[in-house]
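Re-run with default settings, no changes from the original entry. Doing this only to confirm the output is reproducible before filing.
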Amino acid sequence: MQATIEAYLAAYNAKDIPAMLALLDEQIVFENVSNTSGVITTSTKQEFAALARQSVDYFAERRQIVRFAVMGAGAAAVEIDYQATLAQDLPNGLKAGEQLKLRGVSVFEWRDGKFTRISDYS
């Protein structure tokens, strides 16, 4: 499943939403848990797609880099360095051109070759 995670992150970094969606189960649960902006949750592939399309324009560039991964049967935890440059001002006061640098963990769960849950913590 490591190759599927790498494909997902490559698609994310390239802002290739169709490639990201191709790796998801129809009932994908996505959670983004942030210590600064709360929790965002979707529970279908359609909701995930809408969120991905909405957020892709926030960034001039973005990159997730794997620091460490632990693979299990049907799940993986991945420590990630996240870097991005904002393309526009955000409601939280961050301005276009500012750089974000975060470290977080993503937990991936899959079944039949598709992700059924992605939980991002930062």
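The beta strands are 24-34, 38-42, 59-71, 75-86, 99-111, 114-121. The mean pLDDT is 94.
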